[in-house]
Amino acid sequence: MKNLFTKIIIKFLLYFTIITFVLSSFIFFLYSKPKRLKEQTNPSEFNLKWQKVSISSKNHILKGWLIENKKEKLAIILMHGWPADKSDILPFTYFLHEFATLLYIDIRGLGESQGYVCGSKYEIEDIKKWINFLNEKGFLDIALFGYSYGAFLALRAASEIENLKFVISDSPFISIKSTMLNILKNYHIMKYPIIYFMGIKYKIFCGEKIDKFNINKSIQDIKSPTLFICGTKDNLCYNSKTRDYSKINPLLKVELMEELTHGETLINKKYKKIVNEFIRSNK
Question: Does residue 4 register a pLDDT over 80?
Fold first, then answer.
């Protein structure tokens, strides 16, 4: 009887491990290779002169839109959310052209850019390549704007790249791991072994641990003036430590939008004013 019980337990654990591994592989594939979304708009619809641009980074071709403002020395790199593309944030951010040349990029694995999504050191290397691209065009004052997943990358870049003019991070993920746990919340206790196996794949394909960068642990490392925007009902961004970020690092200006969830900050009436005032004070 004891041997039978042991065999049942072993079979259960084996099947559980196989099912969890397969499920985690499927979820990792959906994360890293999401369905490509078609462009919803382009700068012409906002009466902006623009050109398509591209760079090569780690054997992948990355695409973007360059909207020049020849009156200004500042250039801003704008990064969208997951699984969107550069056109997703254009209607809400093209007003920044008043202050700078704008470079809307498709993050690797999304939009028209090649590769697969990680949210790791690979994307930071891509951002450095885009900065070099702008430097070669004569832009030495470089700023970053990111929304959601792009905001997460902007904050990580701000903690690793020196001499950025400023950073605007709107509704960033706290970490890739915490975001995946939130997405998998309906899996209840199953989400933990799923994340464990996803972490193994992440290490293999993305070159680092899935929780390598966590805003709460790295906020003190940010090296440039940063506007941190977050809705207080946004469980991908807001947490118990958010209100203390400015105390941890005085370079951060925290702008909390009460009762707003993920995706609602961009359309808030106060948004443009908040962003404009921050840029004017750090330009």
Answer: no
CATH superfamily of 49-175+213-282: Alpha/Beta hydrolase fold, catalytic domain (3.40.50.1820)
- What does the domain layout of the chain look like in residue ranges? 1-31+190-208, 49-175+213-282
> Can you tell me the mean pLDDT for 61-89?
97
The sign of the dihedral angle between the CA atoms of 26, 27, 29, 34 is positive
Q: How far apart are CA 32 and CA 192, in angstroms?
A: 19
Tens digit of each residue's pLDDT (9 = 90 or more) over 139-179: 999 999 999 999 999 999 999 999 999 999 999 999 999 99
With cut-offs at 50, 70 and 90, classify the pLDDT of residue 2. low
Residues of the chain with pLDDT > 90: what percent? 87
| Rounded CA separation 270/67 (Å) | 25
Task: Name 199's Cβ contacts closer than 8 Å, sequence gap at least 6.
Answer: 177, 209, 210, 211
Strands in the chain per DSSP E? 51-57, 60-67, 74-79, 101-105, 141-147, 167-170, 226-231, 252-257
Strands in 167-170's sheet, in edge-to-edge order, are 51-57, 60-67, 101-105, 74-79, 141-147, 167-170, 226-231, 252-257
Whole-angstrom distance, CA of residue 254 vs CA of residue 69: 28
Q: pTM surpassing 0.85?
A: yes
